[in-house]
Amino acid sequence: xxxxxxxxxxxxxxxxxxxxxxxxxxxxxxxxxxxxxxxxxxxxxxxxxxxxxxxxxxxxxxxxxxxxxxxxxxxxxxxxxxxxxxxxxxxxxxxxxxxxxxxxxxxxxxxxxxxxxxxxxxxxxxxxxxxxxxxxx
Length: 137
Known about the structure:
By secondary structure, this protein is an alpha/beta fold. The chain is built from five helices and five strands, in the order βαβαβαβαβα. Helix 3 links the parallel strand 3 and strand 4. 29% of the residues are buried.
């Protein structure tokens, strides 16, 4: 009798806060459906190498990072062949309507405040994956 193996979705988290990354990774992976990879900060080489190597199904992206902000990273993601179609959720401390409009203009798939509980983030991840046809439902 063959066992059904549930697919684990790979999520790349681009954030400069190591504690937030660890906590989010633990909480998402506890669910069992997700494998979370971390690229600290907006260093293009780091997250691009992670995208090419691990081929994430979704990216969680912070806005405020040293050197390069999340909008610049999102713009770069959308301009490169290996990453342009990966869904992106802005996962940030900022709940600024102007920032949301800017993110939407750069083809961000969703916006979640870090102050929300993990269930809100998980629900948004599921919604984005369904909208992109990566998850049935």
